[in-house]
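FW: tagging you since you asked about this chain on Friday. Here's the raw sequence from the shared folder, copied in full. Didn't touch anything.
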Amino acid sequence: MIAFQVNDMTCGHCAGAITKAVKALDQNARVDVDLGAHQVRIEPASADADSLRRAIEDAGYSPVPQ
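HL: got it, structure written out here
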């Protein structure tokens, strides 16, 4: 499980955009978003942590590995 703190994720649209970005990179990844805690937990099928972090950054957010 890979976890990121994403403090600039503030709404359902943000959560959807991050999920979409992760799924575009790794379509079989399991993505768990906790909007209230600003956390994204990912169980990747093939992607590594750096690639996932970059995908979230490319979607316009600032993930911090946990």
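FW: The mean pLDDT is 97.
HL: agreed, and The first strand starts at residue 2 and ends at 5.
FW: great, closing this out.
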